[in-house]
Specification:
The chain has 90 residues and is an all-alpha fold. It has 5 helices and no strands.
């Protein structure tokens, strides 16, 4: 595997922040898509945002117990909590 400058910088920052070794940059993307799913954003919208070639991939992030997505996406952008059990969860 070729080690790039980005890999090197990521490793330095991860160590500085005491993050686990299995944390990779792709984790941030996965977290964003998961939170959109938890907020009730539909799989088609997640597919468009993520650039997935198939809606089947995007459906992994959609959870049936969530409500409609529009207002929740705005909440996510405002920094309000979107986690079950935390204040602001509906």
């Amino acid at each position: 595997m070729l080690v790039t400058s980005l890999d090197h910088q990521h490793s330095k920052v991860r160590e500085l922040l005491k993050m686990p070794e299995d944390f990779v940059v792709h984790s941030l993307r996965n977290t964003m898509l998961t939170r959109l799913g938890l907020l009730g954003v539909d799989a088609f919208t997640i597919m468009k945002i993520a650039g997935h070639s198939s809606i089947t991939i995007s459906q992994r992030y959609v959870h049936p117990f969530t409500g409609v997505g529009g207002a929740r996406v705005r909440e996510a952008g405002s920094g309000q909590s979107a986690h079950p059990g935390e204040k602001g969860w509906a």
